[in-house]
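Pasting as-is:
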Amino acid sequence: MNTVHLNNDVVMPMVGYGTYQVAPDQTRDNVLQALRTGYRLIDTAQYYGNEDGVGAALQESGLAREQVFVTTKVQTSGYAETKRGLDESLRRFNNDYFDLVLIHWPTGNDLETYRALEEAYQDGKVRSIGLSNFNAAQVQQIIDNSTVVPMVDQIETHLRWQQKRMHAFLASRGIVHESYAPLGEGQPGFMDAPELLKIADKYHRTPAQVVLRFLNQEQVVVIPKSLNPKHMAENLDLFDFELDSGDLRVLEGLDVKQALDGWPESMQEDNY
């Protein structure tokens, strides 16, 4: 597993298992399968309603708590609500801390929400804190009004929207760029670009493996989701090949700066 050091020296795996739209009653079994496959980063959120399933899978896996990096995201607004909500998340997760907690969406009260995360970080309830779906101006506002620089910004990133402008901004601030929906959430035709298929054939890999490896080589953390054990294993099997510079440039050429659903509008590159 390749890893990245966050700006507070916490080590984060470069590939994780996402649990968005994994039903709460299926989360335990799927996350347990992911852990047994070798995943050591699990991504959940209050909004997903499956933090308890992630905790149950971790407990049943037999892995030590410190062996697994667990991210959740707060769906709250303001200091008091976020403080309460995070404590409730820890109870559902059935552990003493999360490795990373993100503000899931900008709400307009983000400075107070982030203040609650800063306090949780100082209290040891969280090993690192960050943001999700925040554009450059919104990230900068947090930096300018806080004492802890965010460690991560998790944003929609894939071949069709590579977030080059946002990536450069985050890198300049020492913030790790994490991709959600790296494989396009299974939308039809998303993985069928002739250029991608040609590169996959060259390396004897699946198109999904090429995309994930491409993002990793661009220093982007990825959290693909699959309920298929074969695909789950393939999505983790990325570290015994490397795309050459020519192939990286070809894949970069597939960027059309297009979101999957045309949202969030604030993240469109002409809005920051």
